Amino acid sequence: MARRKKIYEGKAKILYEGPEPGTIVQYFKDDATAFNAEKKDVIDGKGVLNNRLSEYFMTGLNQIGVPTHFIRRLNMREQLVRNCEIVPLEIIVRNYAAGSLSKRLGIAEGTQLPRPIIEYCYKDDALGDPLVSEEHIAAFGWASQQDMDDILSLALRVNDFMSGVMLAVGIRLVDFKIEIGRVFEGDFQRLIVADEISPDSCRLWDIETGQKLDKDVFRRDLGNLADAYSEVARRLGVLPKSNVAKPTLIN
């Protein structure tokens, strides 16, 4: 394989310069982190599963008219995506109380919220991705009011799509986070869903048993993370059973 220019390496992915102008190759690693990387491990097959699951969700969003950065999958661990300017926010959509929301507000985990709640965190690992308000976002110029209106619309459309997809396979979409990118077409700016959508970025609970099928399995030492992600992939029909947890390594 020809040597490629690395653009960025994060906790779960590596970004390389793409083969065509305006594209990036997104490589999914097997690394698992939690608590702002205080807990780390390597989970065999995790990158393969997240690549295929993110492809599945992004393709579905594109098909219903929700724009994403996803172009096509290249191999078991890599996908070609559109280069975009990432808005420095994590957009969190909550349907049920869990995680930090339960801790902050003293609401029992699993409590259904009266409506989806949207929260924003400033993307900065050194600061622990702190929770911020729309006042902060406006004051520091991270996004305009029009951007925020568009981000809210995108987040709710993703929630509607993801909730329906998961419900159909017996999984409750508790919450999830997305990132938004700006793309420019001449003088025109458009916002698109970027980064990834996978069990790394969602809380997914079995509707019948409450079994966790997301990164909380790793955070809370509840079992094998690859098995949990494999179960999500199996239910969605993303990978054949025999291939779900048997990755092909790409250097």
Automatic annotation (TrEMBL):
It catalyses: 5-amino-1-(5-phospho-D-ribosyl)imidazole-4-carboxylate + L-aspartate + ATP = (2S)-2-[5-amino-1-(5-phospho-beta-D-ribosyl)imidazole-4-carboxamido]succinate + ADP + phosphate + 2 H(+). Pathway: Purine metabolism; IMP biosynthesis via de novo pathway; 5-amino-1-(5-phospho-D-ribosyl)imidazole-4-carboxamide from 5-amino-1-(5-phospho-D-ribosyl)imidazole-4-carboxylate: step 1/2. Keywords: ATP-binding, Ligase, Nucleotide-binding, Purine biosynthesis. Its EC number is 6.3.2.6. Residues 6-235 form the SAICAR synthetase/ADE2 N-terminal domain. Belongs to the SAICAR synthetase family. NCBIfam families: purC (TIGR00081). This is Phosphoribosylaminoimidazole-succinocarboxamide synthase. It comes from Ruegeria haliotis. The lineage of its organism: Bacteria, Pseudomonadati, Pseudomonadota, Alphaproteobacteria, Rhodobacterales.
